[in-house]
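Hello forum,

I keep getting stuck at the same step: I have a sequence, I want structure tokens, and every attempt I make locally crashes halfway through. Rather than fight my setup again tonight, could one of you with a working pipeline run this one for me? It's a single chain of 163 residues.
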Amino acid sequence: MEARSWAPRGQRGPPGVTWLAVVSLLSCLLVPGQAKVFGRCELVERLQDLGLEGYRGYSLADWVCLAYYASGFDTDALDHKPDGSTNSGIFQINSRKWCKNFNKKGPNLCHVYCTDLLNANLKDSVICAMKISQETNGLSNWETWRQNCQGQDLSDWVDGCDF
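Reply #2:
Ran it on my machine without issues. Output:
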């Protein structure tokens, strides 16, 4: 007696699962991701266009250094913290105070969803970073800036970039 599969010939699995797999694959191919890893000079130009040069006394080099050490210039960077908060986007903005996670309550001082900080547009990220830098500590609000950028010669971050 010959063993037979429950699936009709030529079919590799349940029809709904196969169709779902095809639709999922096509949606990934048709919808471009919004995340981006910027090049250094590309980021310098974008941050200047968004008004960060000289903002609150900080140079573009300060902001680029911060972005590098916070996220490696990756707009999709996401870091889940032990306290349940997340750091999101190119500047790793924390949900505890600055942005809103869908399932958490908090002050949301930037009036933005944390997911809005994960795209290549950078507008929401820059506006929120500007708001954070208005606090008493300025860019020192970011530990990574204090440890890697503060008091350093940062000219290499913008050298060779046209802006």
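The radius of gyration is 22 Å. If your local run keeps crashing, start a new thread with the error log.
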